[in-house]
Amino acid sequence: ARDGGAPRARGSRAISRADAGRYICRATNKHGSAVRSIVVTVEYEPSIGEMGCPAQRLWVEGTPAELACAASGNPPPHVACAKLGDGQDPPPASPNVTRAHAGTYQCRATNTHGSALRNVTVAVEYSPAAVSLRVLPSANVSRGASFSVECRAEGLPTPTYGWALPPAPNLRFAADNRSVAVASAAAANRGLYTCTATNRHGRRAGSVMVRVDGEMGCIGKGVGGGVSITTAASPAPSRPAESWLVLLASLGSLGAVTAVGLAAAGGYYLKSTACKKGEYNVRDAEGSSEAACLHRQRHDRGEVYGIQLTQP
């Protein structure tokens, strides 16, 4: 009889795992009895269940990489797991988890009576990485044109997006906040656009500079101010210049001394008038040491020159 149980009838039957345990054997006749204790073990092939080996695993990048999978069997089975397609065992406890660990693993439990297989899918979560921004159609935007800035980032769980950008009323964000669209670009839209991707494991930011160019005429800043000139074509001399040139030509007969004096006075007048009104002869400016070509094209409108006006 099993220890503590009822006696069992004689006869043969199929062995099950439930038959394992301690048994008491008692022999009796009219002269007395003898007792002996026997321990029965039942061996069986391996099996792998959900409790000891979940089919879905979630690892976090940077933590120790360890794929434990428990199996039942007698004798106790040996369990080995390999990533499908790799033919290699995953690192037991080191190195740390990387995104390359993600995939499906097959675990095999083996003993002298057979083997059992179970597939385990491993997902690896990680903080946002590789944040990239793209300006469409270009980061150099013409005034009045439309453009958009898109932000992309890798991460698991999928990151959420936030923006830091020049404040302007003409901004429209996408439903998932991954992009911002700008209609009729103005000076307020130029500047640094920064996108931050965030999930529960961390955050990462990226930036891009947007330049908004507008057509600018000859604008005088007064003494010491800067002037930007679009040289699509050299303008004719200003009216004051024409008047003085005609006057000088008509007075050529007055003599060299008089002509030189008038020319000097005319030059002073032209320079002071240009400083006051912001007018400047572009063709003269291009050959002057006071003008520096910025080497920028404005859509077939010529090069841009910067002119520094000085105290007359």
How many beta-strand runs? Answer: 18
Gross geometry? rod-shaped
Low-confidence stretches: 215-312
| Strand-pairing-aware structural class | mainly beta
Number of helices: 3
Radius of gyration: 44 Å
The share of residues in helices is 10-25%
Order of helices and strands: EEEEEEEEEEEEEEEEHHHEE
Can you summarize the main beta sheet? Answer: 7 strands, mixed
* Integer average pLDDT: 75
For the terminal residues, how far apart are their CA atoms? 124 Å
Strand coverage percent: 35-45%
Detailed description of the structure:
- It is a single chain.
- The protein has 312 residues and is mainly beta.
- 12% of the residues lie in helices and 43% in strands.
- The protein is built from 3 helices and 18 strands.
- The strands form 5 sheets. Strands 4, 6, 7, 8, 10, 12 and 13 form a 7-stranded mixed β-sheet that branches.
- Helix 1 packs antiparallel against helix 2.
- The longest helix has 22 residues.
- This is ICAM5 protein.
- Pfam families: Ig_2 (PF13895), Ig_3 (PF13927).
- InterPro entries: ICAM_VCAM, Ig-like_dom, Ig-like_dom_sf, Ig-like_fold, Ig_sub, Ig_sub2.
- GO terms for molecular function: integrin binding.
Structure, briefly:
With 312 residues, the chain is mainly beta. It has three helices and 18 strands.
Question: What labels would you give this structure?
Answer:
disordered C terminus, seven-stranded mixed beta sheet, rod-shaped, membrane, single chain, transmembrane helix, 312 residues, ICAM5 protein
Helix and strand arrangement:
Blueprint: E1 21-29, E2 32-40, E3 44-47, E4 56-60, E5 72-74, E6 78-83, E7 103-111, E8 114-136, E9 140-142, E10 147-156, E11 160-164, E12 171-173, E13 179-182, E14 191-199, E15 202-213, E16 226-231, H1 239-250, H2 256-277, H3 282-286, E17 291-297, E18 303-308
Parallel strand pairs: 4-8, 9-15
Antiparallel strand pairs: 1-2, 3-5, 6-7, 7-8, 8-10, 10-13, 11-14, 12-13, 14-15, 16-18, 17-18
Helix pairs in contact: 1-2
